[in-house]
Specification:
Layout lengths: L12 H9 L7 E5 L6 H13 L5 H8 L5 E4 L9 H6 L16 H10 L10 E5 L7 H12 L5 E7 L7 H5 L2 E4 L5 H11 L4 H10 L4 H9 L2 H16 L5 H11 L1 H20 L12 H8 L4 H17 L6 H13 L4
Parallel strand pairs: 1-4, 1-5, 2-3, 3-4
């Protein structure tokens, strides 16, 4: 594993300064909130590195090796990779023969609790980092709550969540919330130009697609997101033109990826609603499709559109569990099929 180098993006520098200037660490638990594509994980990992290596030289080598005894990481199994977080998270994964789990389980949280019964091994302060915290079910959240309410000595908790509203209110209330926000367009554009990955002619398009989230905009370009968009848009048209049935379209969405498809459909329905409410919306996710959006918005049922928006929120939540992905997508597909008035 290569040496870890903390990364703080320009739009997160104020947050970083606030975190590192509090040498007394007046808070024992932090909740990093914000949409994907803003650098939550990079900032949280840099903060963990800062705390663990502040006063112990050996900690740097152990952190780089992915084996620091005072760095405790919980991740959904499906999110564990061979990076700094994943290597520390493996100690809390359960052995089983099924598909990688999409949630943080109660057994992971209980194992963490047992590990926290001891004192820090080499660092003055140990760190618990829980990413995708919203994937904990009620039982897992309640098990964690015991540690947040009566925190072990010399322990800092860092929770990360893309969807803070899904976290148990009791967990949220025990944390100091650090909200990361999208930068100004010029800051995002300047950073993307500096990276040299996205062609300058395509930067504005990808920033619109990502709602001005620079890391997400770059990821979309690298993953050829525009091609995925075309595929999903064509499948929606095929439903409305009766070229394909709901089950066939749902299967194509499953091949694309359930969460990725639902994310696109959420943006699409948001744009349709904006066009329903005003002829020339000031902002849309898909500006290159604005003419099509305006035409379609005149042909759909607004009450059904609102129902569909609610259904997509529910679908996104279900796709983070063990519920059958195809069944969830079929339900969404049927509602899309019925959208035209």
């Amino acid at each position: 594993m290569t040496d870890f180098k903390p990364t703080i993006y320009p739009w997160n520098e104020k947050v970083w300064h606030s975190l590192t200037s509090d040498s007394a660490r007046s808070n024992h638990a932090y909740l990093f909130a914000g949409n994907p594509g803003l650098g939550k994980q990079a900032t949280a990992l840099a903060f963990a590195h800062h705390v663990l290596t502040a006063d112990h030289a050996q900690s740097v080598a152990l952190f780089n090796a992915g084996s620091h005894p005072d760095f405790h990481v919980l991740l959904p199994e499906c999110e564990v990779t061979n990076d700094a977080l994943g290597s520390h998270a493996r100690r809390y994964l359960e052995q089983h023969g099924g598909k990688p789990r999409r949630t943080i389980t109660i057994d992971q949280v209980r194992s963490l609790g047992k590990a926290l019964d001891t004192h820090p091994h080499i660092a003055t302060t140990r760190v618990v980092l829980i990413a995708y915290a919203e994937t904990m079910n009620r039982n897992a959240a309640n098990a964690l709550l015991k540690n947040l309410e009566e925190p072990p000595a010399n322990t800092v908790f860092i929770l990360l969540s893309d969807e803070v509203a899904r976290l148990a209110p009791t967990v949220r209330s025990r944390c100091s919330i650090i909200t990361l926000r999208a930068p100004q367009t010029e800051v995002a554009r300047s950073w993307l130009i500096g990276q040299g990955v996205v062609p300058q002619a395509e930067i504005d398009t990808h920033l619109a697609l990502s709602d001005n989230h620079p890391l997400l905009a770059q990821q979309y370009f690298e993953e050829q997101y525009m091609e995925t968009l075309k595929s999903v848009f064509n499948s929606v048209n095929s439903l409305w033109n009766q070229r394909n049935d709901a089950v066939t379209v749902a299967r194509s969405w499953q091949q694309t990826g359930g969460l990725k498809t639902v994310n696109i459909l959420q943006k699409l329905t948001t744009d349709l609603l904006r066009c329903c409410l005003t002829e020339t919306p000031p902002q849309v996710f898909f500006p290159v499709q604005l003419s099509w959006l305006q035409t379609v918005s005149n042909k759909i049922s607004q009450p059904r559109l609102l129902e569909l928006i609610d259904e997509l929120i529910y679908a996104r939540r279900m796709l983070s569990t063990t519920v059958d992905e195809l069944l969830v997508l079929e339900t969404v597909s049927v509602k899309f099929q019925r959208l035209p008035a």
